[in-house]
Design goal:
Glutaredoxin, mainly beta
């Protein structure tokens, strides 16, 4: 246990689960990261890419798993082929380019899967789970505000950063043009909002807030995924998800 984290004992008590939600009342709930580093899967995909649907379907099979957290970033560079992906965003394309520039892979492509920040072409297999996480994360919802507490643990790098996404499941699209013309696509773990927090020195615990509605398009539940990373390499150090 690291004395720098005032809530580390509660975190360690969670065992090997990735996160847990504790509902205190209608507007409050919380999640804490586990002592082991969560496996983080990022899929870069597009409705305009005819090789992407198998990866989209595979990502859907990861729903409900406690040991894997997933996010589908729809990029926008396929939109010129006749079908505009309504989930696509320039910010997602930029994030993929940034990961390539940081050495995650030699080039960007779709469907591209990153596991724990690195290119992974052996899906649907996944690598073994990581070791002890060098940071702990706690999320606490207060209506539409989520309070994020990050505590450094043994092995934390000197400078860390954070990024977050709002995720929705259960989306469907009937594609009418482009490479997937005539295909009905199903999507889960869809990134609907993406944000970042500037880097900070990890010498002491940090706190910041994220605005995160409980429901999204069509009343779908929204999940908040928060990832703390090494500011130098961009590689994830720990992740946790709030689904309430």
């Amino acid at each position: 246990m690291d004395a720098r984290s005032p809530w580390c004992a509660a975190t360690l008590a969670l065992g090997l689960a990735t996160s847990t939600g504790v509902v205190a009342d209608a507007g409050r709930c919380e999640a804490r990261s586990a002592p082991q580093q969560a496996r983080l899967v990022e899929l870069y995909t597009s409705e305009g890419c005819n090789s992407c649907p198998p990866a989209d379907r595979w990502l859907s099979t990861l729903k409900g798993r406690d040991d894997v957290l997933a996010a589908a970033f729809h990029v926008d560079y396929w939109d010129h082929l006749g079908w505009k992906d309504r989930f696509g965003a320039a910010a997602h394309t930029e994030r993929q380019a940034q990961r390539v520039a940081a050495g995650a892979s030699r080039f960007a492509y779709t469907p591209q899967v990153l596991v724990d920040g690195r290119d992974w072409r052996r899906w649907p297999q996944l690598p073994p789970a990581g070791g002890p996480a060098p940071v702990a994360i706690q999320l606490r919802r207060e209506d539409t505000r989520v309070i994020v507490d990050v505590a450094p643990l043994t092995g934390a790098p000197g400078t860390i950063a954070a990024w977050w996404v709002l995720l929705e499941d259960g989306h469907a699209s009937a594609v009418k043009a482009g490479e997937n013309r005539g295909v009905a696509l199903q999507h889960d773990h869809v990134v609907r909002a993406y944000g970042q927090r500037a880097s900070w020195a990890s010498a002491a615990p940090a706190r910041f807030e994220i605005t995160a509605p409980r429901h999204g398009e069509g009343g779908r539940p929204v999940r908040l995924l928060v990832v703390v990373s090494d500011a130098r390499s961009g590689l994830p150090l720990q992740a946790v998800q709030l689904g309430c």
